[in-house]
Design a protein that fits this description.
Strand order of the largest sheet: 3-2-4-1-5-6-7
CATH superfamily of the largest domain: P-loop containing nucleotide triphosphate hydrolases
CATH class of the largest domain: Alpha Beta
Order of helices and strands: EHEHEHEHHEHHEHEHEHEEEEEH
Shape: globular
Number of strands: 13
Structural class: alpha/beta
Bound molecules: zinc ion
Strand content: 15-25%
CATH topology of the largest domain: Rossmann fold
Distance between the termini: 72 Å
Length: about 325
């Protein structure tokens, strides 16, 4: 029997709010024949909504991080994906893109792909792409060992949010990244604006020096979900979220969600990180939309009262 063809796998990593999903969107526009595995730390998956315009095989592992809590689910998921691929004469995809949670250390994922024998003969690791925000990257690297681990395993580093940073800040970050990951390629991108062809064709590392026993890390992050059953006033929600991001600029690492507003027919994608609420974007409507807004907050440690603060902001008339 011939040895099975190996399906290329690209791992997409990067800290909370560094622009992984924006980059993934960009990659899928260019390479639609990709199967996508998304891992989200929050209990309610949001990223799959942000990728809804792509008609690709999409699997989501949510409610835990891929390097620890939901790590055990990766092998069966990749086995099932491979079996589905193998059973079809017309192959449904040409590669697999795995987006880890923003707090994941890529090493246990690499360990699974390279050391699990059934998987390693059927998948080929093509590289680890890691996003780093030019605006908050240096601070994040200073505070979180998870971010350092991501940089350490990167083959390619994408420096995002260059439009939100000063030139000096970008230069300092590049100098830091050159020290931490001298061999990784570094590419600057504003708004995920990068040539996907170049990215997918980047030379990969031949050897990943995995530890003998990959330690399962313990993260100190918390996540809270807010669900709202009825459409909300966008100006009130915006004010409430901005005030929350401002008040907890250090601890509120990431907020994201899909909300239904009284002002728009289509669902609105809301994202924020590092004290900043990003401009909202309208998502395509779908018949399966249930009209319930869901917001996920990821924090450094536990932060109490976040969802209550948003609810009370929504109940307060908006003052201009
Ligand atoms: Zn983890």
């Amino acid at each position: 029997m011939n040895s099975p063809a190996q399906i290329p796998v690209i791992i997409l990593s990067g800290f909370l709010g560094s622009g992984k999903t924006t980059l993934l969107n960009r990659l899928l526009n260019h390479a639609p024949r990709s199967a996508v595995v998304i891992n989200e730390f929050g209990a309610v998956p949001v990223d799959q909504q942000l990728l809804r315009q792509h008609n690709v095989p999409l699997s989501t592992l949510s409610g835990g991080c891929l390097c620890c809590q939901v790590h055990g689910a990766l092998t069966p998921l990749l086995k099932n994906l491979r079996m589905a691929w193998q059973s079809q004469a017309q192959k449904p995809f040409d590669r697999v893109l795995i987006e880890t949670s923003g707090i994941a250390n890529p090493e246990p994922v690499l360990d699974t792909l390279l050391r699990e024998r059934w998987l390693s003969s059927r998948y080929r690791l093509d590289g680890v792409i890691v996003t780093v925000s030019a605006a908050s990257g240096a601070d994040v690297l200073n505070r979180f060992p998870e971010a350092l681990a991501q940089i350490a395993w990167a083959d390619t580093l994408i420096i995002t949010h260059t439009d939100l940073a000063e030139d000096q800040q970008i230069d300092n970050l590049i100098a830091l990244l050159n020290r931490l990951a001298p061999a990784a390629s570094k590419i600057q991108a504003a708004h995920g604006d990068i040539n996907p062809a170049t990215l997918l064709a980047f030379p990969r590392r031949n050897c990943y020096r995995l530890k003998t026993n990959t330690p399962i890390p313990e993260h100190g992050f918390g996540s809270t979900t807010l669900q709202l059953d009825h459409p909300v006033s966008w100006p009130r929600l915006k004010t409430a979220l901005e005030s929350l991001l401002d008040r907890h600029a250090t601890q509120l690492l990431r907020l994201k969600g899909v909300v239904y507003t009284t002002e728009h027919d289509a669902p609105v994608c809301v994202q924020g990180s590092a004290g900043r609420l990003y401009p909202p974007t309208l998502l395509p409507s779908r018949t399966s939309d249930d009209g319930r807004s869901r917001l996920v907050f990821i924090t450094d440690g536990e932060v109490k009262g976040l969802t209550e603060a948003v609810k009370s902001g929504l109940a307060t008339p908006h003052l201009i």
